[in-house]
C-alpha cells in the first residue's frame, strides 16, 4: 500500500487523532538511518500513529546523532507497506536501554492508510481494551434533570464505559451508574451522539474506586 500526502482540507485529516497499536506481533517496524554513507536499520515497535507522526519504542545508543530517519512499517499479510521520512522530536526512557521516541512525518500521511490499519485490527483509537457487556443498568442524574428510564451498558474498560440511554445526556454531566448486582460508581460524560431512537455516549470513571467496583461486577457477570 503506497502512501500519499493528505489534502490539508480533507475531511479525513486526522492530524490530531492518535491510534494505538495492537497485535504488534503482526507489525514489523524499523528506523532506517544514514550513517557514514551506510544505511543502518534499527528494529522498533510502533506504539501509536496519526497522519502527522507516531511514537516508536526502540533501543538507540546515540539518539542525538539521528534526528532524521525513515520509518518503515509492514504487516505479516503484506497489505501494509508504509515508508515515511521524518524527524525525531522527543524521547522518553521507558526501560533500561529502551526509549519511546516521537517521530514527526515530513508530510502528512494519507488517512486511508490508517483506515486500512484499523480495519485490519492493527491499530485502534482506544488505548484500553474494551469488554462487551450489553447489560441493563440504572443511571441517576443530578436533581432537576430528566430521569433515565432505560439504559444499557454496551462495553467497559478500566477507564470508562459506553452506554445507550433513552434520554439525551450532557457532555461533562456526572452520573451515578448502578449494575444489576448493585455495584455503583460515578462517571462523567465525554461525548454523546444519536443512535436510532436512543442516545449513545462515552463516559469515564470519576475515580479509581468507581472503576474497580464496576469492572469487578461486570467481569464477574461475564
From TrEMBL:
PilZ domain location: 18-112, 125-210
Domain of life: Bacteria
MF terms in GO: cyclic-di-GMP binding
Pfam families the UniProt entry points to: PilZ
Name of this chain's protein: PilZ domain-containing protein
Gene source species: Aporhodopirellula rubra
Amino acid at each position: 500500500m503506497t502512501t500519499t500526502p493528505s489534502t490539508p482540507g480533507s475531511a479525513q485529516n486526522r492530524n490530531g487523532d492518535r491510534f494505538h497499536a495492537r497485535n504488534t506481533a503482526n507489525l514489523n517496524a524499523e528506523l532506517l538511518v544514514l550513517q557514514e554513507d551506510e544505511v543502518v536499520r534499527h528494529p522498533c515497535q510502533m506504539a501509536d500513529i496519526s497522519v502527522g507522526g507516531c511514537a516508536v519504542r526502540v533501543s538507540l545508543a546515540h539518539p542525538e546523532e539521528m534526528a532524521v530517519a525513515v520509518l518503515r512499517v509492514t504487516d505479516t499479510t503484506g497489505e501494509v507497506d508504509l515508508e515515511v521520512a521524518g524527524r525525531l522530536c522527543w524521547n522518553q526512557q521507558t526501560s533500561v536501554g529502551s526509549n519511546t521516541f516521537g517521530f514527526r512525518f515530513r508530510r502528512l500521511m494519507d488517512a486511508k492508510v490508517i483506515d486500512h490499519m484499523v480495519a485490519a485490527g492493527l491499530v485502534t483509537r482506544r488505548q484500553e481494551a474494551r469488554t462487551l457487556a450489553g447489560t441493563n443498568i440504572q443511571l441517576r442524574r443530578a436533581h432537576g434533570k430528566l430521569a433515565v428510564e432505560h439504559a444499557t451498558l454496551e462495553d467497559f474498560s478500566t477507564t470508562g464505559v459506553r452506554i445507550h440511554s433513552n434520554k439525551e445526556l450532557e457532555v461533562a454531566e456526572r452520573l451515578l451508574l448502578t449494575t444489576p448486582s448493585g455495584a455503583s460508581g460515578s462517571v462523567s460524560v465525554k461525548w454523546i451522539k444519536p443512535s436510532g431512537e436512543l442516545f449513545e455516549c462515552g463516559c469515564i470513571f470519576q475515580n479509581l474506586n468507581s472503576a474497580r467496583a464496576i469492572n469487578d461486577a461486570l467481569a464477574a457477570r461475564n
